[in-house]
Amino acid sequence: MRKLLIVLNLLLASVFSAAQSSQLDWKARVAATMPLLGHRNWILIVDSAYPLQTSPGVETVETNAHQLDVVGYVLHEILGSIHVRPLIYMDSELPFVPDQDAPGASAYRTEISGLLHQYPVESKPHEKILSTIDEAGKQFHVLVLKTDMAIPYTSVFIRLDCKYWSADAEKRMRANMAEGKPAQ
C-alpha cells in the first residue's frame, strides 16, 4: 500500500510539473520572441480547434492555458515593450454564436470585451483573417498561442505596429517626400 501511495504521489508530481512547465514554456517563448518582433508581425491567441498553419513564418505553441489569461499576459508584454503596440482583430462571427450551440459564448463576449475595453477592436470574417495571416506568414513571423478554449470564433489576432511612429507621422513624411521637402 505504501509503495502504491509513493507511485501515485510521483505520478501526480510529474503531471503537475508538466503542466507548470508548459505554462512556463509559452510565457518564456513570448518573452524571448517579443524583442525580435516588430511592425507587421502577429501574435494570435486562439481556441483549441484553430488549424495548424503551414506558412513558413507561422510558429504554433500549445499553452494548455485559459484564453483570457493568455490574452492578458500577451497584452501586458506588448504594453511593456518600447517598440510595438497592438492592433487587435476578432472574428465578426463571434457576436452571432449563441449559447445554445456554444455554451459560454455570451460570458466570453462579456469577459473579452472587459479585457479589451481600452483598445479599438476591428472585426473581420474569420476566413479573411486566416488568409491575411497566411499571407503575413510568408514574409513575417506569426506567433500562434493555442489555448484550451472550446468556443468557436473566439480567437484574438494581434498585429503589431510601431509604438514610436504613428500612421499620421508616416503620412506626413510621405507627403513631404512627394513634395521634396526634407525634414528641418
Summarize the structure in short.
The chain has 184 residues and is an alpha/beta fold. It is built from five helices and six strands; from the N terminus they run H-E-E-H-E-H-E-H-E-E-H.
Report on this model:
The chain has a six-stranded mixed β-sheet with strand order 2-5-1-6-3-4, with helices on both faces. The protein has one domain (26-179): 3-Layer(aba) Sandwich (RbsD-like fold). Strand 3 (84-91), helix 3 and strand 4 form a beta-alpha-beta unit. The chain contains five helices and six strands; from the N terminus they run αββαβαβαββα. Helices cover 45% and strands 18% of the residues. With 184 residues, it is of the alpha/beta class.
Feature tags:
184 residues, 45% helix, 18% strand, six-stranded mixed beta sheet, 5 helices, RbsD-like fold, globular, alpha/beta
